[in-house]
Structure to design on (144 residues):
């Protein structure tokens, strides 16, 4: 949408100059709503980039924008050198889109994705040379 503003400016008597100024109103970019639907850290095993990783963050991420929804599973292996070391490294981050379509967040859909999350995370980790120990949780699950 554009609005034209007409400005009259007199430089000398009986001389009129009109300057057109266009003001463009631009619809601001809508920020994509990104939510970690589920996040939990587990003991894990794998070597990536020559560094042994002993833990993994398993995250279900929801992205919604302009009537579209996308759910992505992410597995991020990190060193976990001590009990309080949760420094995430980004060279051992693997992700997979589980669902993408027109629509919005749905509890029913998220519940269904949570049922297959561990199986999909095992495949994602295994394809990249890692293993997640589901029975050895490092933190309680976080829900968004």
């Amino acid at each position: 949408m554009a609005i034209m503003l007409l400005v009259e400016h007199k430089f000398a008597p009986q001389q009129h100059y009109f300057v057109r100024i266009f003001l463009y109103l631009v619809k601001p970019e809508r920020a994509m709503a990104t939510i970690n639907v589920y996040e939990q850290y587990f003991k894990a095993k794998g070597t990536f980039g020559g560094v042994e990783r002993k833990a993994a963050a398993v995250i279900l991420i929801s992205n919604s924008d302009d009537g579209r929804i996308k759910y992505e599973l992410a597995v991020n292996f990190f060193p976990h050198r001590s009990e309080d070391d949760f420094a995430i490294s980004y060279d051992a981050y693997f992700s997979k889109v589980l669902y993408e379509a027109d629509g919005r967040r749905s509890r029913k859909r998220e519940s269904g994705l949570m049922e297959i999350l561990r199986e999909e995370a095992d495949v994602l980790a295994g394809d990249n040379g890692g293993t997640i120990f589901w029975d050895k949780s490092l933190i309680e699950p976080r829900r968004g």
Q: What stands out?
A: DSSP finds one helix and eight strands in the chain.
